[in-house]
UniProtKB/TrEMBL annotation:
Its EC number is 1.13.11.18. One of its GO terms (biological process) is glutathione metabolic process. It catalyses: S-sulfanylglutathione + O2 + H2O = sulfite + glutathione + 2 H(+). It is an enzyme of class 1 (oxidoreductase). It comes from Neovison vison (American mink). The lineage of its organism: Eukaryota, Metazoa, Chordata, Craniata, Vertebrata. This is Persulfide dioxygenase ETHE1, mitochondrial.
Length: 175
């Protein structure tokens, strides 16, 4: 039964991410830190969010936002970690009007500090914030308001999870 649910969810995601649907999704990769960055945009309002931007690829991400005709409202971070160097600050200077966002529990600086249950709105969509500590104390997962997508940063990976051996990580809490 669970396998069928996953297959249905996968089909629904692929159907929703085509060019004729309201949400735009782009996955980008930064090989040095092995970080995935996600651009989500509302095709109607052209408002967008960028999840887990990396410092080294912020210029690439800003260029893509401009090429797609989007207005980046927020650069949001799932967590703050030694191997997770955010590009939020640089994006704020490259794309005026963009605000940096991170969990209050992360201890990191940002324009907006969020907590479990908060929502980040862009166009017709919102990212719901879910606390997912363990990788770091302030780690969060962002769930699209229609529940078709979840962005976990390093907390939950395919066939594994993020490391818990430094910066207040806790395997018991993560699991």
């Amino acid at each position: 039964m669970a396998g069928a649910t996953l297959r249905v969810a996968g089909r629904r995601l692929s159907q929703r991410s085509g060019s004729g649907v309201p949400i735009l999704l782009r996955q980008m990769f930064e090989p040095k830190s092995c970080t995935y960055t996600y651009l989500l945009g509302d095709r109607e309002s052209h408002e967008a969010v960028l999840i887990d931007p990396v410092l080294e690829t912020a210029p690439r991400d800003a260029q893509l936002v401009k090429e797609l005709g989007l207005r980046l409202l927020y650069a949001v971070n799932t967590h703050c970690h030694a191997d997770h160097i955010t590009g939020s600050g640089l994006l704020r200077s490259l794309l005026p009007g963009c605000q940096s966002v991170i969990s209050r529990l992360s201890g990191a600086q940002a324009d907006l500090h969020i907590e479990d249950g908060d929502s980040i709105h862009f166009g017709r969509f919102a990212l719901e914030t879910r606390a997912s500590p363990g990788h770091t104390p302030g780690c969060v997962t962002f769930v699209l308001n229609d529940h078709s997508m979840a962005f976990t940063g390093d907390a939950l990976l395919i066939r594994g999870c993020g490391r818990t051996d430094f910066q207040q990580g806790c395997a018991k809490t993560l699991y």
